[in-house]
């Protein structure tokens, strides 16, 4: 008797390379002002709407295009989804980013202007299981953590309710990442499906 394995409810995560030069944008990011944070936690830029800055206009256009493709190809929708807030994270040696989700957002994303093999990856965490068996070999069904190794100029898009974080930076190099949230524009849902909301 043959058993069919069906993979239900996949989590849509996309990674896209930015083909243009990032030299000027990286210089701008490196010269930003950052908020003082609790010791050990990644610092966050003082500007929480960083993608509205003209210095990042080309990058914003690229990100908005990728969000549009994500909505079309993943959700099968032509609804418009806009970037709400955006900020830059800066982690020095010894800093980390605790596990978290992004509230009041549909799709979240992170752009990495400069990475090397010494810098820690972003890690996604699955919902905790109530029972844990002694597994002999890890696979995508029994693993709680997914480590996503990335290259410079990579854009990652994922559902905002997925828990993620970054382990301790053991490198002497700074780890920069530009993160953002999104929200649908206009009316969301469908009257006939009783999921209609007021226009925002």
Task: Write up what this structure looks like.
The structure is a single chain. With 200 residues, the protein is an alpha+beta fold. It is built from two helices and ten strands; from the N terminus they run βαβαββββββββ. The chain has helices at residues 23-30, 57-74, and strands spanning 14-17, 43-44, 81-91, 97-100, 107-112, 122-125, 145-148, 154-159, 163-166, 175-184. A six-stranded antiparallel sheet has the order 1-8-5-10-3-2. The chain is globular.
Q: Indicate the proportion of strand residues.
A: 25-35%
Q: Gap between N and C termini, in Å?
A: 54 Å
SS-based class: alpha+beta
Structure annotation, total helices: 2
Shape: globular
Uncertain runs are none
Number of strands: 10
Radius of gyration: 19 Å
**Main sheet specs:** 6 strands, antiparallel
**Helices and strands, in N-to-C order?**
EHEHEEEEEEEE
Main sheet strand line-up: 1-8-5-10-3-2
* Arithmetic mean of pLDDT: 92
User: Which percent range fits the helix content?
Assistant: 10-25%
Summarize the structure.
It is built from 2 helices and 10 strands; from the N terminus they run βαβαββββββββ. The chain is of the alpha+beta class and 200 residues long.
Defining key terms:
200 residues; 6-stranded antiparallel beta sheet; alpha+beta; 2 helices; single chain; 13% helix; 4-stranded antiparallel beta sheet
What's the arrangement of secondary structure elements?
Layout: E1 14-17, H1 23-30, E2 43-44, H2 57-74, E3 81-91, E4 97-100, E5 107-112, E6 122-125, E7 145-148, E8 154-159, E9 163-166, E10 175-184
Antiparallel strand pairs: 1-8, 2-3, 3-10, 4-9, 5-8, 5-10, 6-7, 6-9
